[in-house]
Amino acid sequence: xxxxxLIVAAVAIVVAxxxxxxxxxxxxxxxxxxxxxxxxxxxxxxxxxxLHRGHVPGRSGEIMTVPRPHRYFAGAWDLRTxxxxxxxxxxxxxxxxxxxxxxxxxxxxxxxxxxxxxVDEPVDVAGIAPTYARLLKMRGFRSDAAALPEVAEPxxxxxxxxxxxxxxxxxxxxxIDGGGWNVLQQHPGQWPTIARxxxxxxxxxxxxxxxxxxxxxxxxxxxxxxxxxxTHGIPGNQLRDPEGNNEDAYRENADPSFLRSAxxxxxxxxxxxxxxxxxxxxxxxxxxGMIGHGAERRGGDRDVAVLWEPDPDDDEEEEDEWWVNxxxxxxPTYLETTDLQRLHAYEEALDERDGLADxxxxxxxxxxxxxxxxxPGTPAFVRFTGDAILDVLANEPIGDDELTDLFWIEMKMxxxxxxxxxxxxxxxxxxxxxxxxxxxxxVAWLDDNIGRNGYVLGIxxxxxxxxxxxxxxxxxxxxxxxxRDVEERFGAxxxxxxxxxxxxxxxxxxxxxxxxxxxxxRFLATYTIGDNIADAQPGAGLVPEDRLDxxxxxxxxxxGYLRDLTEDEIASFGDGDYPEGDLDVRxxxx
Length: 590
What we know:
Layout: H1 3-23, H2 36-43, H3 45-54, E1 63-67, E2 71-73, H4 98-101, E3 105-108, E4 117-119, E5 123-124, H5 128-135, E6 170-176, H6 181-186, H7 192-200, E7 202-204, E8 207-208, H8 216-225, H9 229-232, E9 238-240, E10 246-248, H10 264-271, E11 278-281, E12 304-309, E13 321-323, H11 340-348, E14 360-361, E15 364-365, H12 366-369, H13 379-395, E16 405-411, H14 413-421, H15 426-449, E17 455-461, E18 475-477, H16 479-490, E19 495-498, E20 502-505, H17 507-513, H18 517-525, E21 553-558, H19 559-564, H20 567-572
Parallel strand pairs: 2-18, 4-7, 5-8, 6-16, 6-17, 11-12, 11-16
Antiparallel strand pairs: 1-20, 1-21, 3-7, 3-17, 9-10, 12-13, 14-15, 19-20
């Protein structure tokens, strides 16, 4: 072989090697990516404190994402809708920002709660359980939060000894799922009963959910226990179990064994020899954190729990029904047979609620509204749930003796409506109106059967909702494309699951590949709309060119970083760069 040929061959090898080097996927954090501390300072103290409280090491995903305000995970959505007047209406809400974190807290009870009081001191829903403990005169109740101000000492005159005042006969709590302040303010005329209770009770105008993300399973457990997720152990609707598997937080079987903290209800119940009545009417297992473990806990009993079991396959041999895991809880006999004919009659009556007798409810046909994934998001299902609540009130020994009973009600329907049609639309307002009517039924029953001076009623929400991002400069994040992009850069199959909150990583592969999760988080901080658009994706040309370089995440944090944060470090992060990160409505920009 001639020298010339050798030189040409050598050059070709060098060129080929250079080409391979130039074309290989880049690894590690991009040049100029912010550090974890820089991201935390940009997000600010209030949100970082909530993220720290909401992250459960060993159970949460290995990387918690913080999409910028009005950016959220939405699956592989159709970009072609950008050219129409029919945007994608489905949404998710687990972001930490103020519009999902601010919720009302209302306490009403003429014999125990001051009338017409507005409290603007910052509080959160973790304060509800210790407030009930004070009303119940429980000794030694410990929780992450203090009792709510103004209600903890119900005796008059202020500061008087309360030893002689009887406990309330009943404490009823209504959690309006997805009923945060931004939803109520969007539909101001649709909740007259709640508005009256705000005027006639004590209203906490500056309340939040106290942790992040704003997700059902986590916040309901906070409401029931007085602890934040980092303590009670439920980070959301999904978690990693002790064997490392990605699991539903209640094992898809109303199994409360992952809940680490005891609730105020079960501690009160056990202290009184399980004589008080404790129960709930809710939608699914994610809400059992309000009442507790039932018989799963040593010393507990089978408290009443009424949950909804939709037939996911719409199988004619199966039926939607009330149910519960009867190893741990009791399903009342009078609800064992679900009256679906009554629900169907309510659904048929939806037609004229929108003011137009055209065979639809806001354009949705009856067949569309009876799909199991949509059915709970209608006024018909609200009324049907209200019937079940009144059945429980009428048939259980609630308020029959001197020992306080605790009834926890979860109204899932506003959240369902928001997910299906968006909180801005009239469907949400109509569902909220019917929710208010059912709360009025509960108040009427309490007045008639317990007496106006014998009970305390609490009303709150587990989060607000996400309005259409088009109206707020937001964006829907394609989780599948993000997963592909992360794995292309850091290693195939290193992501086990992408949720609306976090990335569950294949920890064995992460270790084998030597992947630094801090670099994955830093990569996400540079991830843009353009990056999130798949190659040749239909509708890609409709995305405004000036938005392609827009970053989607305010930050992302590996579990070790969140776990090790100290309160001093959190306080040092300051105000942050996002107005939506201000959780105090009294402060500028709030």
